[in-house]
Design a protein that fits this description.
The complex is a heterodimer of chains A (201) and B (451). Chain A has 201 residues and is mainly beta. The radius of gyration of chain A is 23 Å and the shape is globular. The two termini of chain B are 25 Å apart. Chain B is an alpha+beta fold. The relative contact order of chain B is 0.13. In chain B, β6 and β7 form a beta hairpin. In chain B, 15% of the residues lie in helices and 31% in strands. In chain B, the strands form 8 sheets. In chain B, strands 1, 2, 6, 7, 10 and 13 form a 6-stranded antiparallel β-sheet that branches. Classes of the chains: A mainly beta (201), B alpha+beta (451). β12 of chain A pairs antiparallel with β14 of chain B.
C-alpha cells in the first residue's frame, strides 16, 4: 500500500542519500513540436544550479460538505543560480524584452532559438539510494510548464550578471484547461440532420 | 465497474452526449392545416427520452427558424392535444451567427413560446434544456415538443413564408457519473492522458458505481464558467475528492474505495509532534436537498397527475417532499446546534402556471441544490454521508514527516493513527500537503474519518 515501496521507506528512515533532479525542456522552435532536454540540476551530476529547492502545496476539493476546500493547481517554485557559474553549458534565463529567453542551441536548424521561459517545461524528480542504486519516488515526479520567473536584478543577453531567478511552474492542465472558459460555440451545430423544409401553404 | 483502457482513448467520447440523445434524431412527423381555415403547420421535433428512470423530453436542443417565420413551441401529449405541458427555462440564442451569448428568454414556465422574428434576416435559435415530464407511472403518455408555425396567433399576424427549417444546436453536454464526466471533459478539451491520474478516476468510477444508487449527472457547458468551476460543481455531486496530485495530475479520489496510505502512524514516524484540533467547521447536520434545474416553481392545477403536481409544487410547500428531501441528524443538532448545509438561499414567491405571482405569499428558501442530478435516488445516495460522517465532530491532525510523508497523497486513507495523544487509534483522510524540497520535509493535514 502507499506510494513508496517498503525498501524506499526503510531507506528514508535510515537516512539514505536523496537526490533531486530538475530538467528544463526547451522547444526547438515556436511550434513546440520538439523539445530539447536540459538538466539544470542533478545532485549526483555535473550541473547544480538550484540554490533553493522550494516547496509544493496541494490540497483537495470536496473534503467535506460544509467546507469543500480549494482545488489548487499544483504549482511549484524554486530558485536557481542564474549567473552561469554553476553553468548548464552557460545557458541561463535572460530577462528583458525580446531577450527574455532561455538560450539553447538548436541542433535541428543550426541556429539558436530564443525560447521564452514560459515556452519551457519543467521536470522535477526525487530519488533515494536503495541498495546502492537510485530509486525514484514516482508519486511525486512532476512535469509542468514554467509560468513565471522573477529575476533578482535586471540583466541583458550579453552579460552574465550575478543573481538568481525564481521559477514557478504549474501543471499543463492548470495552465491550459482548468482556466479555460466555456465559449458559446462549444457546441455541436448540426444542420444536416435537422434541416427540414416544408412547402408553404 | 472501472474505467476501461479504451475509455482513455475513445470511450470517453461516449460520455459527451451526442445527437442520438437530442432532438435531432427525433423528428417525428408533420402535417399541415391543423387549424381549419388558417395556414398552420406543425412538426414534432422531439420525443420523450427515458434517462435513468426520469422521462425527459429530449435533451439540449434548439428550434431555429428563418426571419420570415412565426410560430410557437410547446410540449404536448400526442395522445391528448389538450394536455399541454409547460416548458421552462427556455433560452434564446440570438444574433447573426449563433455566437452571441445565450440568455434567459423566459425563466417563467409557460405553456408555449411564441416565436417572433423581430429582426429581418436574422436566424434565431431557441435552445432548451431537457423538458421534463416526471410521468413514469404512465408509459402510454408520449410528450413531444412541437413547433407550430402560424399566422393566426395574436402574436403572429403576418403571412407564413414558403419554408422554414428546424435546426439543432447542442451545447456540449456530458452524462455519466462524476468520475466519467470530469475525465471526459478533461480529455475532450485536450488534456494529455498522462496529465490525468487514470487509476484514481477508475477507482472513483468503481466506487460510485457500487453506491446504493450510482450518481449520474447531466452537465451542460455554461458559457463564461471555467472548466475548474464546472468540474468542481460536478465533484460536489459526489463525496469524492478532486485534486491536483503531488505529481501534478488531476485526480478524483474515491471516498468509498479510498487508496490506502500507511496502516500505522505513530510519533516515531513524525518529525516533532502532531497538532490536533476539533474541526467544528466541517460539521453539517441538516439540509433540504433538491436536484435538477427546478429553480423556479409554480402552481399547477389538479388536472395533472399526482406525480407531476408534486414535482411542480415542491418549492412552495413541499420542502420535505420528493424533490426536496429533508435530512437531519437530531443527535448532532442537539449537541452542536442546527447547522444547515445550503447553497441556494432566495426569497421565493408562489407563481401561477402562467407565471403570475400569487399575492401575499413569500418565503425564504434554503436548499442544498444538486443542479446536475435528475433523479432523487442519486441525490439521496450522496447525502447518506451527511448522517454517517458529516454530522460528527471530527479531528484535524497536522503532521510533519521526512520523505516518508510522500507515501500518501490527497484523498489517501491512513489507518492506525496513534498520534492524537489520548490513546485513540483513528482513521483519517489526507486533505492537504506541503512538500519542502529544500529541507526534505512533508507536512500533511488529515481529517478524521469516523469508523
Amino acid at each position: 500500500v502507499g506510494l513508496l515501496t517498503a525498501a524506499q521507506l526503510s531507506a528514508i528512515q535510515s537516512g539514505a542519500k536523496v537526490r533531486q533532479v530538475w530538467k528544463i525542456y526547451v522547444p526547438y522552435d515556436s511550434t513546440h513540436a520538439t523539445y530539447e532536454e536540459w538538466t539544470i540540476h542533478d545532485d549526483a551530476g555535473q550541473y547544480q544550479c538550484v540554490v533553493d529547492a522550494g516547496s509544493r502545496s496541494v490540497s483537495g476539493f470536496n473534503v467535506s460538505m460544509s467546507v469543500p476546500g480549494e482545488l489548487t493547481v499544483g504549482d511549484c517554485t524554486f530558485t536557481v543560480d542564474n549567473t552561469g557559474s554553476q553553468t548548464f553549458e552557460n545557458r541561463k534565463f535572460y530577462p528583458g524584452g525580446e531577450l527574455t529567453s532561455f538560450f539553447v542551441g538548436n541542433s535541428l536548424s543550426g541556429t539558436p532559438y530564443l525560447a521564452d521561459p514560459q515556452e519551457c517545461l519543467l521536470q522535477h524528480q526525487i530519488f533515494v539510494k536503495v541498495s546502492g542504486a537510485w530509486s525514484e519516488l514516482t508519486g511525486v515526479s512532476y512535469k509542468g510548464r514554467i509560468v513565471d520567473i522573477i529575476f533578482d536584478e535586471g540583466g541583458n543577453h550579453d552579460g552574465a550578471q550575478p543573481g538568481t531567478a525564481t521559477i514557478t511552474a504549474e501543471n499543463n492542465i492548470a495552465a491550459e484547461i482548468l482556466r479555460y472558459e466555456w465559449k458559446e460555440d462549444d457546441a455541436d451545430d448540426d444542420v444536416t440532420l435537422t434541416t427540414i423544409y416544408m412547402e408553404g401553404s | 465497474m472501472s474505467l476501461s483502457s479504451s475509455f482513455w482513448t475513445t470511450g470517453y467520447a461516449d460520455i459527451r452526449v451526442q445527437h442520438d440523445f437530442s432532438s435531432a434524431g427525433h423528428l417525428a412527423y408533420r402535417y399541415a392545416y391543423i387549424d381549419s381555415g388558417s395556414p398552420t403547420e406543425e412538426v414534432y421535433i422531439s420525443e420523450i427520452q427515458d434517462v435513468y428512470g426520469l422521462r425527459q423530453l429530449s435533451s439540449m436542443g434548439s428550434v431555429a427558424y428563418n426571419s420570415e417565420e412565426h410560430g410557437k413551441v410547446y410540449a404536448v401529449n400526442t395522445t391528448d392535444s389538450t394536455d399541454v405541458r409547460p416548458l421552462n427555462w427556455v433560452r434564446v440564442m440570438g444574433g447573426e451567427d449563433w455566437t452571441n451569448p445565450a440568455y434567459i428568454w423566459s425563466s417563467v414556465p409557460t405553456s408555449q413560446v411564441y416565436i417572433d422574428p423581430g429582426i429581418e434576416n436574422v436566424e434565431k435559435g431557441y435552445p432548451f434544456p431537457p423538458v421534463r415530464s416526471r410521468d413514469t407511472s404512465d408509459d402510454s403518455t408520449t410528450i413531444i415538443l412541437k413547433y407550430i408555425r402560424s399566422n393566426t396567433s395574436t402574436a403572429n399576424d403576418t403571412p407564413v413564408s414558403d419554408s422554414f427549417y428546424v435546426r439543432h444546436f447542442q451545447p456540449y453536454t456530458y452524462y455519466g457519473n462524476p468520475s466519467e464526466v470530469i475525465a471526459a471533459i478533461m480529455l475532450h478539451l485536450g488534456a494529455d492522458e498522462d496529465s490525468i491520474d487514470k487509476d484514481a478516476f477508475s477507482n472513483a468510477d468503481t466506487g460510485l458505481a457500487a453506491m446504493t444508487d450510482e450518481p449520474k449527472v447531466l452537465v451542460t457547458r455554461e458559457v463564461g464558467e471555467t472548466i475548474a468551476e464546472t468540474i468542481r460543481r460536478v465533484a460536489r455531486h459526489s463525496n469524492d475528492i478532486l485534486c491536483v496530485s503531488m505529481a501534478g495530475k488531476i485526480a478524483l479520489v474515491s471516498r468509498s474505495l479510498p487508496p490506502a496510505g500507511p496502516t500505522s502512524l505513530t510519533p516515531s514516524d513524525l518529525i516533532g509532534g502532531a497538532s490536533v484540533r476539533y474541526a467544528r467547521e466541517h460539521i453539517t447536520n441538516h439540509s433540504f436537498t433538491s436536484f435538477g434545474e427546478w429553480l423556479l416553481f409554480y402552481y399547477t392545477d389538479d388536472t395533472l397527475d399526482t406525480q407531476q403536481s408534486r414535482y411542480d409544487r415542491f418549492a412552495e410547500w413541499d420542502l420535505d417532499g420528493v424533490l426536496t428531501n429533508e435530512i437531519s441528524d437530531t443527535t448532532s443538532i442537539a449537541k452542536y446546534g442546527d447547522i444547515i448545509q445550503t447553497n441556494v438561499e432566495q426569497d421565493q414567491r408562489i407563481r401561477n402556471e402562467d407565471g403570475s405571482i400569487v399575492d401575499g405569499i413569500l418565503r425564504k428558501v434554503q436548499r442544498l441544490h444538486f443542479p446536475y442530478f435528475y433523479d432523487e435516488d442519486c441525490r439521496d445516495a450522496v447525502m447518506e454521508r451527511l448522517t454517517d460522517v458529516e454530522s460528527t465532530l471530527r479531528r484535524e491532525i497536522e503532521i510533519k514527516q521526512d520523505l516518508r510523508g510522500l507515501d500518501f497523497d490527497i484523498g489517501y486513507e491512513l489507518t492506525g493513527i496513534e498520534v492524537t495523544g489520548d490513546g485513540d487509534t483513528i482513521t483519517a483522510t489526507c486533505i492537504e500537503k506541503e512538500i519542502d524540497f529544500q529541507n526534505l520535509t512533508v507536512k500533511s493535514k488529515l481529517l478524521e474519518e469516523p469508523s
